[in-house]
Amino acid sequence: MEQSLTMMLLQSIAALAGVLALFALFVWGMKRFQGHTLSSNTSNMRVLQRLSLDSRHSLIEVQRGNKHYILSTSSAAGVSMIESFEVESVDAPKIEEQISDD
What we know:
About 45% of the residues lie in helices and about 30% in strands. The chain has two helices and four strands.
């Protein structure tokens, strides 16, 4: 009786270890492949800043190409655009020239 109880305990521990190992493998795979699917998106859209105003309201600056959008989010009203504007692209050589001139 004591031997069968010990065997059942070892089987339970082994089963739990197997389930935890499968879960860890699943999480690792999701993290690994999530980055690839998001980076393959060619929309060139990205969130530049997020400012939390309170627990239900926030402001978000989103960039798509040269165009920037200021969005307001709230749990009651959803998402609304406050402003959109274009920003000239900055050339890397000009920035390097300004730094080297100083």
